[in-house]
Design a protein that fits this description.
The complex is a heterodimer of chains A (618) and B (333).
Chain A (H helix, E strand, L loop, with lengths): L10 E5 L1 E9 L4 H14 L3 E7 L14 E9 L12 E4 L2 H7 L8 E5 L5 H6 L16 E5 L1 H8 L7 H6 L1 H12 L5 H10 L4 H20 L5 E5 L7 E7 H16 L3 E5 L6 H9 L5 E5 L3 H13 L3 E6 L1 H6 L1 H10 L3 E7 L16 H6 L8 E4 L5 H16 L2 E7 H5 L1 E5 L45 E3 L14 H16 L16 E8 L3 H13 L4 E6 L1 E3 L5 H6 L1 E8 L4 H10 L4 E4 L8 H13 L2
Parallel strand pairs in A: 1-8, 2-5, 5-6, 6-7, 10-11, 10-12, 12-13, 13-15, 14-15, 18-19, 18-21, 21-22
Antiparallel strand pairs in A: 2-4, 3-4, 9-16, 14-20
Helix pairs in contact in A: 1-6, 1-7, 4-6, 6-8, 7-8, 9-10, 9-15, 11-13, 18-21
Chain B lengths: L24 H13 L8 E5 L14 E4 L5 H11 L4 E7 H7 L1 H10 L3 E7 L34 H7 L4 E6 L3 H13 L4 E6 L11 H4 L4 H4 E4 L6 E2 L5 E6 L2 E6 L17 H8 L8 E8 L5 H9 L10 H6 L4 E3 L1
Helix pairs in contact in B: 1-6, 3-4, 5-9
The chains are: A alpha/beta (618), B alpha/beta (333).
Amino acid sequence: MNKNNNSRKVSVSQLSSVTVRFAGDSGDGIQLVGSQFANSTAIAGNDLSTLPDYPAEIRAPAGSLAGVSGFQISFGDDTVLTPGNKPNVLLVMNPAALAVNLKSMDKGGVIIANSDAFTAPALEKAGYAANPLEDGSLANYRVIGVPVNALTENALKDSGLTPAQVFKCKNFYLLGMLYWMYGLGTEVTLAWIKTKFKKVPELAAANSKVLMAGYDYAETTEIFDARFQLKKSPVAPGKYRNLTGNEAAAYALITAAKLLKKKLFYGSYPITPASEILQTLSKHRANDVVVFQAEDEIAAICATIGAAFAGELAATGTSGPGLSLKAEALGLAVIAELPLVVVNVQRGGPSTGLPTKTEQSDLLQAVYGRHGECPLVVLAASSPADCFNTTLEAARIAVKYMTPVIVLSNSYLSNGSEPFRIPKLSELPKFQLNPLPEPAEYKPFMRNPETLARPWTWPGLAGYEYRAGGLEKADVTGAISYDPGNHEIMTKLRADKVARVVKEIPPTKLHGQAEGDLLVVGWGSTYGAIKTAVNEARKAGLSVSSIHIKHIFPMPPDLGPIMRRFRKVLVPEENSGQLRMLLRSAYSIEPLGLNKMQGQPLNSDEILAKVQEILRGN
Amino acid sequence: MENIKLAAKDFSSNLPVKWCPGCGDFAILNMIQKTLAGMGLPHEKYAVISGIGCSSRFPYYVNTYGFHTLHGRALPVATGVKLSNPELSVWVATGDGDGLSIGGNHMLHTIRRNIGLKIVLFNNRIYGLTKGQASPTTQPGTKTKTTPLGAIDYPFNPAQFAVGLDCTFVARGIDTDIPGTSAILERAARHSGTAFVEVLQKCVPFTDKEFDPLKDAALKEDLLLRVEHGKPLVFGKNKDKGIVFRNFRAQIIEFRPGAVPAEVAVYDETNTEMAYLVSGFTRSGFPMPIGVFKSVRKPAYEELYYDQVAAVGNTKDHELEALLAGPDAWEIK
């Protein structure tokens, strides 16, 4: 959509990557505009990564600092690993959005503001004594004020819509302007509007009109003297869609069940930021996708355990406080040796903590947070799309080893999105159930010699009736046993079974060289930031490499040898050093830490600075 | 239902039963084994789920699939089983502590959903397995290890609690009343939706005498009210007492044996208000009501779920590749 047919001189610059942040009231449709922009950049062939930043309140008072909702997207002509550190362009719908976000802008950045929203009462709510668009305080930025309310009203003056309906269309005006600035097509959003407002054609017409009015305004007015172009990103050919981490986890669960030819049973209780898994699966309820919204976190996991006992692929999802409530039931799943997937979307804790903000602080809870000796498998996803692979792998391990598996995601991954290459069925991993012995040979706690998994049987299968339960079971027969020696045998068997999952772990991928001054060891959501920082450091000639751990428990068997080939090890984490503690106890090494506990993701600049600080000290 | 003939002994797991000698649980076990045998299902099609407590040892003694779960959590586990496979006959053995104290929230919501579980709540008015602490049904004034001066908590009336939650099948029986309680279990087994059966049952070490008067041949007919759908609410050794409702208050009237006045209420198990009033009799001088208090048909949760999704599974949109692609995928060549 390059209709440069006016006579005005417009410079077109080539960019390799851009970070844009949208901010406004939580009722301004910021997330909607952001995700539309993301889809349009994706279809234009750019790689991208997004991150929404929700306020904790659903609707804080309009115009208040607490009610500011944000959505950041980074897109570019190369692989985009993070949603960007600092925005190049900040788009604000009101003064509060400017006040909250200005500190994250570098000088020289572009600020596009809805100047109609900078009224005296709104300025006061945001804590401004004077209008920052006019008082010169933003002299170090390039500020573009656009009277969006008036322009939207003008575009819709003959539409017959109520003032409230007109007001709601204004976010599309700004979106249209941005599409022009970045040479993006409007067709994705126009198609979306058509579907969304299928039943209200007058709203469809109004929103489309406002979008195009914004586009034309940017093209014709003189305040926009520059537009930018990005080359296509060299991504692998295939079919793509944009997925958040939560959607990716949900689709992985359905995929796993279908590969197993079983029902998926997902039992869950609403909790931020995991509810979208429950909601996504609810949309796909079917004969073989059973979704159960339980009365509480405990009922959610217990129903899931019931489904596993009944022979279906059983999963639950939650966030930190919910994982604490599920801890007792996880003990039951471990001793009953039933397969279970638990997706834990971490948030800032403890307690209610920072429910809408990100953290990596449930690592030790996932590995150790249960009564008794209670080993289970813990995996961590490293990007929104990787939530698919990791959850699928969790399900595969759960049924192969008859064990609960916890998948660690977090707020950053669950809400962030990136293009997901839709796998062909032939590319998906094979799911296999352990074959059952004949009924005459069957014992509930006999074991597969390779995996130590017990046979999975369920009500309805004739000849395999057995009693599961939380009391200690006798080895092989599964009868209740208080025998002291047996408890020790079973404790060791449960640990040994989980330890054997190391056979499923592929060799660790080293980013950089196999030895050197510094190895950065990461896990989970810091993947993109670490890789970006290490790339920068290596370009600057520093001897630094990185690895990223997906298998948290048990750990990759090659981890120790790899770490020992580096003089120093740095572990960046959004907690006060939980992986560092595990590495120290498992390998008797003394890694350095970079720890951030602010409810915000570690960014690549922070990691790069730490790498430079460590290596300068050499 | 499949036509399969099994006997009660087919449901015995042959494990040594570890309840105290004389425990009321033995009688309940025998009655349930007999009920299962009469249902005409092969024995792999049952699941017996329990929580923690003496009654929750139950699954070990029934020869079918069983799951001895966590304290208070039998109901959500059973819900997961039933919703996964609605063909199964799923039974829950629970107690007054397991089902009404630590598992109280699950009891509320299980009954609210009307999921097809047969809940048998063994009410011995005490924590037996942990050796004698007060439970939510311990009667006021009772001295236990945790209430040495007498219990001051107001107790639950389990059957009335279930009626209050609009449970679609509610009944109360007594462990020693084999014909009466067997008939209740038989009906519960065939009920669609949640069936809640409270069984009064003594605990030999701690509440041995709790229900003695209700079991005393000389006294019991004056102390028990056997409710039966379509029959007048008459009791007494000589069938000379009846329940009447005056201004929504129950009162006892006496009459000549055989000459039941028209004013005596005729029991209607489809009438929730009546079930609430009658199952709630606890006033002094009033008999202990037993029998089926309520039985109505309302679609069960699992029926509603699978009816709702019946059309979905066969559509093309539900095939894996279509699901993964979603409505707005794009292609990169």
